[in-house]
Amino acid sequence: MGWVSARDRVNFWLVCLLCMLCSVSGIGVNWGTQSSHSLPPDIIVNLLKDNGFQRVKLFDADYGTLKALGKSGIEVMVGIPNDMLASVGGSMKAAEKWVAKNVSAHITSNNVNIRYVAVGNEPFLETYNGSYLNITYPALRNIQSALVKAGLGSQVKVTVPLNADVYASSSGYPSGGDFRADIHDLMLMIVNFLSVSSAPFTKNGFGNLPIIVGEIGWPTDGDRNADVEYARRFNQGFMSHISGGRGTPMRPGPIDAYLFSLIDEDDKSSAPGNFERHWGIFTFDGEAKYPLNLGTTNSGALVPAKGVKYLERKWCVMKPSARLDDPQVEPSVSYACGLADCTSLGYGTSCGNLDARGNISYAFNSYFQKNNQLEVACKFPNISMITKTDPTPTAGNCKFEIMIQPYYESAGRDLSVPRSLWTWFMFLFIFC
Ligand SMILES: *[C@@H]1O[C@H](CO)[C@@H](O)[C@H](O)[C@H]1NC(C)=O
Ligand SMILES: *[C@@H]1O[C@H](CO)[C@@H](O)[C@H](O)[C@H]1NC(C)=O
Ligand SMILES: *[C@@H]1O[C@H](CO)[C@@H](O)[C@H](O)[C@H]1NC(C)=O
Ligand SMILES: *[C@@H]1O[C@H](CO)[C@@H](O)[C@H](O)[C@H]1NC(C)=O
Ligand SMILES: *[C@@H]1O[C@H](CO)[C@@H](O)[C@H](O)[C@H]1NC(C)=O
């Protein structure tokens, strides 16, 4: 999900990513999995249920994730990543295989309530330089045909999640705009196709077709415009707005929406900005970040994840005896930050007020935790040590995390073991 410039901040249209879907009721949420340490899928499914989410949007069709959603009753949107569009768009056989493996099998043998297939994820984003322009529509058609062929034509709908940048408005208001010139005809073709196969999206002229907001939210860290109070106000305001059923000026009435997002993901690219790893309404380990009333729980509060298993209570910090001007400090910090996560250290962020030693310790600890507290991951030459005293400052929101226990997927595709070994070797290479 892209950030918005300061100019656009008040204009939530640019934070919304529009999905082309039929209307259903209930609040949904995006479940992304780009984390170094993911919570086990069954814990997340309980988190979804405890918080009354009736719908979930996935970015792929991971087997373990879908298996955990079986029998939950939660409506699921599975996704075809952009890098698979060429294959399913180029071959009907590949599309049929994708549907058989990633939709039909889960519905029949696992009772997963799959209702939508998202074909690509914001494939027309301007930063992709048109890489997916000619393949998205063929992929959409092939997947739709494959669904019909599998007898799922009326149960599972296709959609293309699009960023608001498909839209251009000369007046500055959403209602004054039209599709971007370079994709104008393609967008009309897609809208027509979806409307004929009754999985609609619309703008002016297709007024009877409903719209869904595929991603909406506010990050809590990594930028001076991202903190828990802004995020709480934005998300609570949005929840109250949609529960009032007011819709938008062009489109009054209920809007269906998927919050962005469920949990923080520390392995996401921070290229769009350091906030990119902080979109969750829950932290990476399933703690509520701020009070948010979704209108779905008796208490009116978010319910945290249950049964989360943590590593030991220990941290890696800068040795008190080490000097700030030690020549090893700078390369050690850049090494740690390069491989772990220092997105909470910049100006105006949750740990932005740490002093220089706190800063260095934060970086060391992040690396240490990400590597499952391996002893060798706290051997920055002569300047680091392991401690059992929590270095988290008593005031403010800065937190020195303890990592959760790594979860090994049943399919054995978890990368955390080779990755920590690899970083271990890197470490020896650099420091020995
Ligand atoms: C099913 O989805 C997964 C996850 O996105 C993907 O890796 C796999 O290739 C897909 N299977 C087929 C047969 O296309
Ligand atoms: C898009 O083009 C720009 C400028 O030509 C280039 O820097 C960038 O890497 C390209 N991005 C992709 C995803 O191809
Ligand atoms: C899409 O365009 C690329 C380059 O512009 C081309 O290599 C590819 O064959 C095209 N694919 C289709 C299905 O037209
Ligand atoms: C802490 O680290 C951040 C990011 O690396 C940097 O911008 C900031 O100036 C540092 N603060 C101190 C006090 O060193
Ligand atoms: C580590 O610190 C000790 C004492 O402060 C010093 O004698 C030693 O030379 C240092 N070693 C390295 C590799 O800097």
TrEMBL record:
Gene3D superfamilies: 1.20.58.1040, Glycosidases
GO CC term (a single one): plasma membrane
Entry-linked SMART domains: X8 (SM00768)
UniProt keyword annotations, A-Z: Disulfide bond, Glycosidase, Hydrolase, Signal
Pfam families linked to this entry: Glyco_hydro_17, X8
Signal peptide positions (record): 1-26
X8 domain residues: 314-400
Catalytically driven reaction(s): Hydrolysis of (1->3)-beta-D-glucosidic linkages in (1->3)-beta-D-glucans
BP-aspect Gene Ontology terms: carbohydrate metabolic process
Keyword Hydrolase assigned: yes
EC numbers, comma separated: 3.2.1.39
MF term (GO), any: glucan endo-1,3-beta-D-glucosidase activity
Family, similarity comment: Belongs to the glycosyl hydrolase 17 family.
Name of the protein this chain belongs to: glucan endo-1,3-beta-D-glucosidase
Higher taxonomy: Eukaryota, Viridiplantae, Streptophyta, Embryophyta, Tracheophyta
